[in-house]
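Study both lines:
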Amino acid sequence: MGSLSRGSGPGYWLRHPYLRLFVLALIMTCNFLLFTEDPKFHSVTEVDIPFAGNAVQLLILNWPPGAQWIALKLCIGLFSLGIGLIVGKFLLHKLILKRWWRLKLFKEDRGSFFCMAITTGICLVTGSYLYNFILLLGMEDYSEHLLNGKLIMDNQTFGKIAMIGKWLGDSTSLFLVLDMMLQEKKHYRQWAPRLRAKWDVRMGKTLCSLRIIAFWVYQLIMTPLVLALVLANVIDWSKAGFGSTGLERGILAGIVACCDMAIVAQDWEYPRFKTNTDVKLPGMETGNLKCNCLAKYPVVITGKWFNYGIVLAVMVLDFNALNNHLSYNPMAYGQYVHPETQRIMTITNVTEAYDYNQLNWTVRWMENKTESDIMLSSRYLGLSWGWRLLVIVPTALIGISRFSKRKEETEKKRQRRR
């Protein structure tokens, strides 16, 4: 942290408040561009999300006929949910991360909710495959009841939900990072000193500080505006793009993925996170949320973990988007390519959209049966593995460099102890 106080060195400028805010604003901008350019978000086919869809189906969807099979599915779902919570709390958090690795980020009960979320997701996916295996052994007509990644919505609806989720996550992260920087007084003391002095001070006779008022005003104005833009038909999103190709969409998704990792790496306490300062939650006066369902083993969400929990959740969506853009094939989403302009055409008839025969779609075009089809601004030129690696490699290198930085700091700490 010495470079942060001296005001010199690359670490100082890479973690400067203005650059941190710029990275977050860049993520929000790129996500909106991807929303307008992503051809999948205009498809009428059913959304299919491997693993995550399996977990959702195990808990609430695709119930089989017969009381015994319903009881089996319910027992496996609840058992997987309980095991995931227990393993995350006691094995991953308390034993591995806290006792064995002694990571300051997970001291006391901090980060327990994040650990429980990871292990619960893994256990639910594992439980779904166990349930499928039992169906294969014991049910005669099992094909319709096997759990998979499909959800009861089309890609258009999921695209809007995902965009709203990303906006809520990104906008909250933007304000959280700004809030944390203004609450922190040790680093970058020359940055916004007047605002920092008034940020967490109650205003006059009110019970609210400037930080609380600013957060709720920001959310109450911006969130309804974004919801209206995404959900209402004010803008024709199929024509709002700039005509990107698969490579350009992949590069945009790669930039977002890199920026997601940069949010964590730009933290003033990265990579050790050994501070004892409790950052207050956005819009609240408390520094943590605590669930005392089990009095002896509380689940705690601190202000910093609240921020990075949101960042990691959005990061999963962004990396999934990166994978989807690099592996996109129009036929898998009831779409085809205009033979002259190379722009993507979306079939709006659900029955016809599930026809994966490219020959039928070619005949469809030649016989002029495309009146109901929608022409998107996005184009499809095909994407070779060489171009895909061009997008993947920089993202992977940034991730490896961040991990190496963390490992280097850990080794230095061990050497100082010796």
